[in-house]
Every structure is written in C-alpha cells, then in structure tokens.
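Batch job 17 of 40 flagged for manual review because the log was empty.
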Amino acid sequence: MTTTIIITLCSLLLIAYLFDYSFKKTKVPSVILLLLLGWLVRQATVLFELQLPDLSAILPILGTTGLILIVLEGALELELNKSKIKLIRKSFFGALAPLLALSFLLTYIFEQYGGYTFRDSLINAIPLCVISSAIAIPSVRNLPKSNREFVIYESSLSDILGVVFFNFMLRNETVGLDSFGVFGLQLIVICVISFVATIGLSFLLSKLEHHIKFVPIILLTILIYAISYVYHLPALIFILIFGLSIGNLNELHNLKFFDIIRTDILNKEVNKFKELTVEATFLIRSLFFLLFGYLLETSEILNTSTLIWAVGIVILTFTIRAIQLKLSKIPLKPLLFVAPRGLITILLFLYISPENMIGLVNKSLIIQVIVLTVLIMMVGMITNTNHAEEEKEEGHLGEATDKAGISSNPAAEDEKSSGLDEPDNTSEDEATK
C-alpha cells in the first residue's frame, strides 16, 4: 500500500508538471486540469473500491501553506522604485475597489434574497471577490512586461486585502470605531514585527554557512505567520514586507539597518531562495488543487440550482472589472479576462464557521465560480494570443514592404502603449547624475 501511494503521488505530480509546462502551448490553466485529474482519481478509487482515509483535514493546511508561499513568491518578483509608483497605485486601486464593490453588492443581494444578516452575508461574499494570484500570475507569463507586472501587483494585493478584510469581519461581531482602532493598532504591531523579522531573517540568510540554509528560512517565515495569526494580526503583511525587502535590496542598501548585512552576498542567496520558493509553491499548489478535485462530488459540480447564481456572480465580477480598468485608463484587453478565483477563494470558504454560513454559498457555488472565471480567462488569453500573432505577421509584412522601397511609418507602432508604464524622466536623470 505504501509503495502504491508513493507511485501515485509521484505520477500525479509529474502530470501536474506537464500541465504547467504545456500551458505555453495549450493556454489551458493547470488549475482546471488539476481539479479534473483529482476528480478522476476519486472516480477510480470508487470504481476499484479502494478505501482511503478522510483527507479533508489536510486541505486547510495545504491551502494556508500555499497562500504564504504564493504571496512570498509574488512579493519577491515585485520591484520597488520611483518608476513603479504609478503602476503600484493603479494596482492597489485595481485590487481594492472591485473587492469592496463586489463584496457589498453581493452582500446586499444575499440580504434581500435570503434574508441573512449583513455580517454573515459579507463574510460569505468576500471569498468570491478575491483574485487568485496562484492562477493569475502563472497565466500571464506570455503577456507584455507591463501587463504582467500589473497582474502580479494586483493579484498579490487582492490576496492580502481579501484575507485582511475577511479576518476583520470574522473576528468582529460588530463594526465600530473600537474595532477600527484595534485594527489600526494591529497594523502597527505587525509592521514592527515584520521589520524586525525581516532584518533577522536577512541576516541569517547572509550568514548561514551550513549546506541547508533556505528550508529554515521558509520554516521560520511560516512560523512567524502562524504565531501572528494566532494573535489576530494581519500576518500576510509580514510575508509581503519580507518578500519586498529581500527582493529589492538594491533599493534598500542605503538604509543603516542593512549595514550589518553583506548585501552583495545576500543578493546571490536571494536568487537561490527565489528558485526554491517557486518550486515549493508549485508543489504545494499542485497538491492543494489535486486534493480539492479529489474531494469534489459529481453532484456538487453539476448542481444546476447554484449554476444560475454562479453565472450571475461572474457577470458582476467582469462588469465591475471593466469599469475599474476604464477608470484607471487601462486598455480592457487582455487584462479584463484576468480575474480568476482559486486557492484563496477555497481557503476563505473553508474558514467560515458553520454558524456564519449561508445556504446560498456552498461548495457547488464556489467550484462553479472558480471554473467559470478560469475558463473566461483561458478564452481571453487564447484570443489575445491570436490577435498578437496577427499583429506580428502584419509587422513582418510591413518590414518586407520597407525593404522593397515602399514607405511606411514604423514609429507609429512604437508609440503604442499599454497605459500602465510611463517612464519617469526625472528618475532617469537623477540616476544618470
């Protein structure tokens, strides 16, 4: 039995790797294939009458670990400099505004239709409103750099803001000045903890000479997150600050607090740490979606009573996203389609206590919303790729006509902008000086 489990796990993870590797060609998000693969494994166990223990208790553990690693991976990829201020501002608005707008709109609908309380309705609405960085970031690898950076910032911030908002509502029976005051104090405390922990972990990363050095750093990061969470602190902020700090040492090396650290050595170690984090994230994320697919019942996926609600929620999601992109003066294509729900939606749903659950929001609705948003993203990415290839072919044709002596205006093509990046000439001049 032990050998069978090892063979099965290794085979499933290798298949998960093939799903991820083939995304560039197929444009099919691996989450869909992983859920399907997990569901097929469940059907095989039923068919062959195999008895397996209840694995549902493992799902929140994998989900929480995956969330930490995903946010850390995203934070390590983000750049902090003056030229990114406009992008960060738009990304923050893109993460916060749709989260609040859709949450309160769904809360109102749940209240009016089901007669539930405002707090219970909001707690159940928030998981449906968070963009999944676990799905969004890998899915935009083939987009231009400006669009890719926007999605990394936006989805990472959406994860953090969504979790903070959810925990705030879950832990406060009533919302008033007192609760906001306590929350403000918690933010200050976690920022102080994050700063001290970041210095300590960075020092360890640069000084450890043992052949095992990255695993202890990851374990300490998860441990600090867990302890902060126990004391009701917004622990994901620590993950964000730690990742941003060690990922942007070139911008922070002038700070006196980093004098005790050899930044030249640390930069080399951070690059290795990034690689390990990416691979660990892939492993945990794959296991999470495989297990969630395994735990799905066929009746939950094909539940027609929740399908209408799922379609309605998805329509509202992309309508609000279109408005947000227009207000931010960002072209709709291809970013309109990048609003998938995934790991964070499942994880927050699992954290809802039975007394706070409402009948309208169940596992069927959650999985249907996830599948629909991911399918829409997939179609959007495919159509955008086809459009980009057509433009590329037209560009080659234009070059050919130029060589033939036919006048053209290639400068017009260079003036196309995504609306996300505007060079900061002042910053460039200062850098030159």
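Reviewer: the log was empty due to a logging misconfiguration, but the result itself is present. The mean pLDDT is 85. Unflagging and moving on to job 18.
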